[in-house]
Amino acid sequence: MENYSKTLKDRLSAKGKKRILALDGGGIRGAVTIGFLEKMESLLAARHSQIKDFRLSHYFDLIGGTSTGAIIATLLVTGHSASQIKQLYMQLGEKIFSDRNGLNLLGKQIYTNSKYDSRPLKDELENIFKDNKLGDDSNKTGLCIVSKRLDTCSTWPVTNNPDAMYFNQNRFYLRDIVRASTAAPSYFEPELIDVGNGEVGVFVDGGMSLMNNPSWQLFLVATLKGFKLEWETGEDNMFIVSIGTGRRDKKLIGDKWANPNLLKIATEAPNQFMSDASEHIELMMQLTGRSTGPRRKIDLEVGDLGDDAFHGVKGFSYLRYNMEMSREKLKEIGIENYSDTKIATLMEMDMPENVNDLMKIGELAAEKYVENGHFPNTFNVV
Q1: Within the chain, which residues score under 50 in pLDDT?
Q2: Helix spans in the chain (H)
Q3: How far from 382 is each of 19, 71, 173, 222, CA to CA, in Å?
Q4: What is the DSSP string of 51-65?
Q5: Do 286 and 318 meet the contact criterion of CB atoms below 8 Å apart?
Q6: Which of 27, 64, 85, 162 qualifies as a FRET site for 355, CA 20 to 30 Å off?
């Protein structure tokens, strides 16, 4: 049996106030997330100036993500700064979304299987994470990677907690479990991983579960007895920060969808599912958590749920950053020259040519919306 980091075990099992960071999936739109992380790291580094080379892994006890959020989360957990991740990310997109499968037929690309060759992604993850595994000394704090096991129809929140039930059985290489979380169907082929006892699991992107926004999953991992952390709940005991990759309201034109054929329904179904899942997770987080920053109106009927709670009790302090991709909201942060067509293009998950625009949006949004006061002083660094 391989050794694990005793420092990590001590941190995860320590009693006291806990901080959690959850990062959404969204393909290349993870560039928006990085803008928020840079601003957060700068503010928190100034607050904790006694720590040389401050990293977000110093502040957060558990960092988790889905898909592109899993890549960023694992980079944070292995001690990378937000600025280092920014440089890596700008190189990654072009390499990952480069080699296309399929044939060009009369000017139209026809895909016979996955849209992209997964080898460049696997190579880059191997270059970055090498032979590091869950729970070894490369892990500076808690990690949770959300993936979907296709062959058993189950969501897998894989953690580096040495006390977890399947920790010794599933000491995955970081490169493999991150790749599993990013294996978006139709974009990349599934990842096959030995899960022990002679069984091979077929894994796809965690966004195929309800947990593309993994904040609720991380709350469950931190608190349910079965996950073996059992951190104390309460708005003075747990602080959860959730960061998105940009969102945009979508409205289908009614008369065009009055009598859709099966192909149109099948094509639109994933969008409908992911939209519902995202809204539901945000509703649950705003219902259960006490906000330390901005709150979004979920819809006109329920509002932002600031006055709602289970028996009047909030389970944690909560902070959600995301960027509304609309002309009105972009104007708020100083961008006035984007058309609706341009904005729609920015919501695509596999266009590396958008990375500079997305980085800029994330940085400007963070400058506008991230405030030092959003991070409670009662939650000090370990």
Answers
A1: 1, 101-111
A2: 6-13, 30-47, 56-59, 68-77, 82-96, 119-129, 174-181, 215-223, 262-288, 327-332, 340-346, 355-369
A3: 10, 24, 27, 17
A4: STT--HHHH-SEEEE
A5: yes
A6: 64
Distance CA 59, CA 341 (A): 39
Other residues' Cβ atoms within 10 Å of the Cβ of residue 299: 10
What pLDDT does 2 receive?
Answer: 53
Q: Indicate the angle between helix axes 82-96 and 30-47, nearest 10 degrees.
A: 170
- Whole-number pLDDT of residue 256: 65
- The amino acid that residue 113 corresponds to is N
Taking the C-alpha atoms of residue 264 and residue 244, their distance in angstroms, rounded to an integer, is 28
Q: Which residues pair with 280 in a beta bridge?
A: none
pTM above 0.85, yes or no: yes
Beta-ladder partners of 159 = 144
- Amino acid making up residue 138: S
pLDDT at residue 1 in the model = 41
Which DSSP letter does residue 182 get?
T
25-47: b (≥16 Cβ within 10 Å) or e: bbbbbbbbbbbbbbbbbbbbbeb
Residue 149 DSSP label: E
Q: What is the C-alpha separation between 185 and 174, in angstroms, rounded?
A: 20
